[in-house]
Amino acid sequence: IWTTFSHSESEEAYQAISCPVLLVTGSRSIEYWASIRSTLNQQDTEFYETDQLRKKALFQHADWIEINQAGHMLHYDQPNEVAKVIRNFIPDKSP
User: What is the pTM of this model?
Assistant: First the structure.
């Protein structure tokens, strides 16, 4: 989910989503953000998982998958694993 609203507005909207939601992050995502934002520190990296769980709880029906050895661009870092996770999430509608 890309947000163009404030975090509070976005999070308020998440609560209205009733369909299943898949949140996919990379295990090394915080490393990317720490490399471009010098204000991030160890405390922020420890907060990361807690914040992801908090965001997951905002949705009525959400799953959160973290892909190992993937950073901010997880679809480039681990494309096969991302595809597998998405395929497993989407129910098979074939006859």
Answer: 0.73
